[in-house]
Amino acid sequence: PYQIYAREELYSMAMAYCTKIAVGSSWVKEDIISNYTIHNEKIQVIPCAAPVSMENNISNKELSEIKLLYDLPEKFIYYPAMTWEHKNHIRLLKALKYIYEKDNITINLVCTGNKVESYWPVIQQELENLNLINQVKFLGLIPFKHVKAVYQLSDFVIVPTLFEAESGPVFEAWNERKAVVCSNVTSLPEQVDDAALLVNPYSVEEIANAIRKLYLDKDLQSIMIQKGEKRSI
Questions:
Q1: Rounded to whole angstroms, how far apart are CA atoms 58 and 209?
Q2: Model-wide pTM > 0.70
Q3: b/e 59-98 (16+ beta carbons within 10 angstroms → b)
């Protein structure tokens, strides 16, 4: 509550005194207009570039070294996100378990991002409850160059978040030529258009079905990669 109050004070004051407001999506623009009565012309939509695009190209030798460093599996899907509750790691873990129990398919998951103290223990406990310790890796915070490498080593990227003003990982996945599965909430449908498989992030079954579909269909992965490249231009 204190943080929300502080942000409301800061945002209201900043938006009243600034000349322009830059936002990443039309969804955020409309949200600001409806909640702060800011005039439409004061807000400019400027989509973010993929942060990993600032990194130099990674050689095959470096990729092999980074893969060895983190003991990454041959095949895995990737979710880069801090372990806040709204990032929805728990339903993602349940989706992996669902796939294994329904189809006897083991899909490895690699996650990066700060292990937020307030919620990380909940995720740890769920990993144990679902018996996913050997199937899921949480690498924590890693160097930015290594993040780029993990994108490149992955099969595709999954972003099952419950809220996003704009998803950096989606842009990064497209930049690294990876297909995307992501939530159909808040700004994400606008951001991805048809360049990702959209799922209801509250449905474990929907998340599981999309992961299974993309994991098993290489032609679909190629189609989504092409769409992502086109969408990111």
A1: 32
A2: yes
A3: eeebbeebbeebebbeebbbbbbbbbeebbbbbbbbbbbb
Residue 107 CA to residue 90 CA, distance in Å, equals: 15
Both tokens of 109, joined, read 């998951």
Do the beta carbons of residue 107 and residue 215 sit within 8 Å? yes
Q: Count CB atoms within 10 A of the CB of residue 58.
A: 18
Residue 9, both tokens = 């004070």
**How does pLDDT run across 44-73, given as a tens digit for each residue?**
999 888 888 888 899 999 999 999 999 999
Q: Is 99 helix (H, G, I), strand (E, B) or coil?
A: helix
Q: Please tell me the distance from the alpha carbon of residue 191 to that of residue 186, in angstroms, as a whole number.
A: 10
130/204 Cα distance (integer angstroms)? 14
- Residue 199 CA to residue 206 CA, distance in Å, equals 6
